[in-house]
Structure formats: structure tokens, C-alpha cells
Amino acid sequence: MYESYFGITKNPFLLTPDPSFLYLTESHREAYAGLMYAVTARKGFVVLTGEVGTGKTTLLHALLKGSPQCHFSVVLNPSLTPAEFLEFVMHDFGIDIRKTNNKAQRLVALYTFLAQSQSRGKTPVLVVDEAHRLDATLLEEIRLLTNFESSVSKLLQIVLVGQVEFDQTLDRPDLRQLKQRIAVRLTVNPLRAADVEQYIWHRWRIAGGRKSPFQAEAVAKVAAVTGGIPRLINTLCDNALLVAFATDSREVTEAHVAEAAHDLHLDTAERSAQAEAAPQAPEPETAPAAPAPELVPEWAKIPDIPVSDTVPSIPRTVRENRGGGSLLARWFGWSRSAGA
Fold first, then answer.
1. Is 178:167 a contact under the CB 8 Å cutoff?
2. Measured between alpha carbons, how far is 238 from 232 in angstroms, rounded to an integer?
3. Spatial CA neighbour of 233 closest among 53, 21, 9
4. Along the chain (340 residues), what's the average pLDDT of each consecutive run of 10 residues?
5. May I ask the CATH class of domain 192-268?
6. What helix, strand, coil percent values describe the chain, rounded to 5?
7. Which of 25, 75, 141, 240 is deepest in the core (most CB within 10 A)?
8. Does residue 92 sit in helix, strand or coil?
């Protein structure tokens, strides 16, 4: 929408993992070099972890594009049963599974494919994205695939890519056999504040731009709001450009970034601070609550029975007699005398 307005040929902040936009920070460069080394040297097992949105999938696409000597099978959604997982891997490698009727035959077919690929100078590589979603059963099946090996090298290279919690999964005691087979372990980190400006300029230049429209204060705001997460940087910059375009501004200011961050609900810290600083409305005065009625069980209730039905009438002579003790005593004395 805003490409022609800002003089660029394509959107520089798309969320697709386009390897042509890959910006290599120190940790990204180390991770990419580690992936290339592990695959080309046939190390067998490599693990790449990082926070959400730090560019792991983009690194994978760069690996796929930069390794013509490799034959890849890429599992993007590992929420499969062990049988489904094996079928998907073989199908993605181009292995015909219609002639296999059971797991044993499929493993034989897979081994044959791996051995033939090595003899042709090709390196089969299994890449599993979202590896933090793998359960222990499927992880064990993947570990067993590393048993395919010759006397000099592994026939199948396996790359597991997941979020940082995958590191904790691999440290579990019941997965120690898998952990011991990991030859290379890599991590990608968020961008430092100093890298954010270079990241934005790199993508802007790749998109055909000559000068970045982001002011220094806007870049600092982007770095503060996103925490250096590339995916969030892309989203925030894209929306900030739209805000600037809508206001007919050739430059992206801090105010544009702040408005975009507010619309995307990325300014959660500011929202929390404003909520805490807002005056609290006084609680309305309420009248004291009436005391709760005393609950009396049914068996304890005394029926209203006329006294005349239970107490004998007091003789007229006693009622009129005012002397000599209490009324009850006088009546009791009369009752005894009457009975006598």
C-alpha cells in the first residue's frame, strides 16, 4: 500500500521467512554457521533453540537455500503419531511408500534411500520445526533414526528447531540417550538495542529504499517496545509506516510508532503504568446490612397453643385473693387443698 509512496519496490517488513531479508547478528551468524557445519560435516544431530519470533525459521530457509548438496525433508507440524511422522518424512524425501505394508518395510526403504543418497554425494537432512511440541515417544523414534549410519558417518542428518523450553525438555533424565547424541547445540537471541537500527536499515535497503524514513527517536521506541524480537519489529514498523502514510508524512516519528504500538497492544508496560496511576473511584456508601434472621429448626419451634388448653383455670377466689405470697404459691396451695 505504501511502497510507491516511500519509494521502495516491495514491503520490507513482511512476516514471511524470506531468506533474502536475513540480517545476521552475532548470534544469528553463529547459529547459521553452526547449522551449515553440522550438516556438511555429517555430525548427525543438531539442535537450534530461541525465543518466539527471533528468526529461527528464517535461518532454516537460508539453510535450505544455501545447501544444494543436501536433500531435505522438512516437518513444519510435528503433531503426528510415530507412524504418521515416518510416512511424512519418507514422502517428503520422495520415497514411494505404496509398496511398503508395515513399519519394518518402510525402515528398509528409508535405509536404502539414505545409503544411495550418500553414494551419489547427496546429504539427506531431516528438519523438524516446532520441536518443542514433540512428545517423548516421538523424540525416541527420531533418536532411533540416527542409528542409520555407515562406518564413517551418519546417513541421516537431523535438525531440531524449537523454542527455549525445548532445552528443558532435552535435559529430562528419561531423554538422556537423545541428549548424548546431540553433536551441535545452537541458540539465537533477540536483537540488542544497537542492532535494531541496522536491522531496519538492512530490510529497507533490500526492499529498494535509499534512506530509512525512521527517525532516531522512532527507532529507539521500536527497540524499547519490541524487546529486540525481529517478528515484533517487523509488525510494528509495518504499522508505523501505515500511520505515517495515512498522515501524509515522509518520515516515521516516535509518535507514529507509539500509535502503532498502542493499536497492536504492544505497549503493555505503559498500559499497566497508566492503569496503576489512574485515580480509583470511591466506593459507594452502603447502609449497614440488616442482621440475618435467626434460623430455628422445625423441631425446636413451639406452637402457639392457648394457655387455657394447658393450664387449669385459676379459681375466682384465688384471683381475688391479694394476700399471702405470690400468685403461683397461692394457686399451688389452693391446688393442694382442693386435692385434699
1. no
2. 10
3. 53
4. 92 93 95 95 94 95 93 94 95 92 94 94 96 94 91 91 95 93 96 95 96 96 96 97 96 97 84 52 57 54 51 46 45 46
5. mainly alpha
6. 50, 10, 40
7. 240
8. helix
Give the start-to-end residue ranges of the domains of the chain: 19-188, 192-268
May I ask the CATH architecture of the domain 19-188?
Answer: 3-Layer(aba) Sandwich (3.40)
**Burial group, residue 264, by CB count within 10 angstroms (0-12, 13-18, 19+):** middle
Per-residue confidence (pLDDT) for residue 273, from 0 to 100: 46
**HSE (CB half, 13 Å, CA atoms) of 139?**
24
| Alpha-helix runs per DSSP H in the chain | 3-6, 26-40, 56-65, 82-93, 103-119, 136-145, 165-170, 176-180, 193-206, 216-226, 230-246, 254-263, 268-277, 316-320, 327-339
Question: Under the phi-then-psi rule, with left for phi > 0, alpha for psi from -120 to 50, and beta for the rest, what region is 169?
Answer: alpha
